[in-house]
């Protein structure tokens, strides 16, 4: 089995919405061969809770407006550390960068085929590492100022 046209359409739109809200490391997997509950997973992350929420809100709004899709389940909203949107055909995971590293969902799904994403979404690869490096430099500079 492979992801359906509908799943791919949802993934494309969700990935673009996430990229528009500056999500990091957007990637999608076709999990239809290993899971019967959904066709595809979309993973994205952000360096803070507010941005996680903003990405989730944009994905929901875009899928609703463009494709008439509403999630059947939304989890993790209160903490905004890891929000899951279940659209049946696809499941979207938007994680805080720390959760993304800790849970490493890519390791679980690395044997599944990657789905093609819009260029804007592909351009987000490596952004989390880049952000972490800049943050570490800023923290070190701030520490130096305190001495």
Low-confidence stretches: none
Find the count of extended strands (DSSP E, 2+ residues).
5
Distance between the termini: 60 Å
Main sheet? 5 strands, mixed
Structural class: alpha+beta
Work out the helicity level: 40-55%
Query: Could you say which overall geometry the principal axes of the C-alpha atoms support?
Result: elongated
| Spatial order of strands in the largest sheet | 1-2-5-4-3
Element-level helix/strand string: HEEHEEEHHHH
Mean pLDDT: 92
Rg, Cα atoms, Å: 16 Å
Approximately what portion of the residues adopt beta-strand conformation?
Answer: 15-25%
- Count of helical stretches: 6
Note down, in words, how this protein is organized:
- The protein is α+β, with helices and mostly antiparallel strands and 147 residues long.
- Helices cover 48% and strands 20% of the residues.
- The protein has a five-stranded mixed beta sheet with strand order 1-2-5-4-3.
- Strand 4 (82-86) and strand 5 (90-96) form a beta hairpin.
- It is elongated and about 60 Å long.
- The chain starts with a helix and ends with a helix.
- The model has no long low-confidence stretch (mean pLDDT 92).
Provide the descriptors you would attach to this structure in a database record.
single chain; 147 residues; alpha+beta; 5-stranded mixed β-sheet; 6 helices; 20% strand; elongated
